[in-house]
């Protein structure tokens, strides 16, 4: 049913659950699997946080993103599968839009995303990447709720 499955990962336990679901689906469907992680540079661009060099902070974000990707790829290999990695920078766009655009460009047939299930003031302050993806994705989206 799904030949191309993309999963968004961020290193959280919720995204780990989404990755495990995507792995299970990819095995069952014999599908191609793509892992995507977005390096969100918004904090660098929006705030003067007193960091001596934004280039150093950006390097930390990139290294963290690569570690998230490496951990995700290791889990895929442990399951006996292969996955194509995609480490992206948000470049001024909302993370949800970057993920949805990447899924569209890769011709994903299913997009798997973890959701923290925030609500109320917490959701208002932090926003919801999962909700943004639901609003903009051109393909089916599977939301996997955290524990």
TL;DR?
50% of the residues lie in helices and 20% in strands. The chain is α/β, with parallel strands linked by helices and 147 residues long.
> Number of helix segments?
6
Whole-number count of domains: 1
**Gap between N and C termini:** 28 Å
Q: What amount of the residues lies in strands?
A: 15-25%
Uncertain runs are 120-126
Shape call: globular
Do you know the CATH architecture?
3-Layer(aba) Sandwich
Please count the beta strands (DSSP E, at least 2 residues each). Answer: 5
Written description of the protein model:
This protein has helices spanning 13-29, 42-46, 54-78, 95-105, 120-126, 129-136, and strands at 4-8, 32-39, 84-89, 110-115, 141-145. The protein is an alpha/beta fold. The chain has one domain: HUPs (Rossmann fold), CATH 3.40.50.620. It has a five-stranded parallel sheet, sandwiched between helices. It starts with a strand and ends with a strand.
Task: List its traits.
alpha/beta; five-stranded parallel sheet; Rossmann fold; 147 residues; globular
Helix/strand layout:
Elements: E1 4-8, H1 13-29, E2 32-39, H2 42-46, H3 54-78, E3 84-89, H4 95-105, E4 110-115, H5 120-126, H6 129-136, E5 141-145
């Amino acid at each position: 049913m799904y030949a191309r499955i993309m999963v968004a990962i961020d290193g959280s336990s919720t995204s780990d659950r989404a990755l495990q679901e995507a792995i299970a689906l990819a095995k069952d469907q014999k599908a191609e699997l793509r892992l995507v992680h977005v390096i969100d540079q918004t904090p660098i661009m929006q705030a003067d946080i007193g960091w001596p060099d934004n280039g150093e902070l950006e390097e930390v974000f990139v290294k963290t993103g690569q570690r998230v990707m490496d951990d995700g790829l290791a889990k895929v290999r442990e399951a006996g599968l292969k996955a194509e990695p995609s480490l992206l920078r948000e470049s001024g766009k909302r993370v949800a839009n970057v993920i949805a655009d990447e899924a569209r460009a890769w011709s994903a047939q299913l997009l798997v995303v973890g959701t923290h299930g925030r609500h109320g003031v917490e959701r208002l302050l932090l926003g919801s990447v999962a909700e943004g993806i639901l609003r903009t994705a051109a393909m089916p989206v599977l939301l996997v709720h955290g524990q």
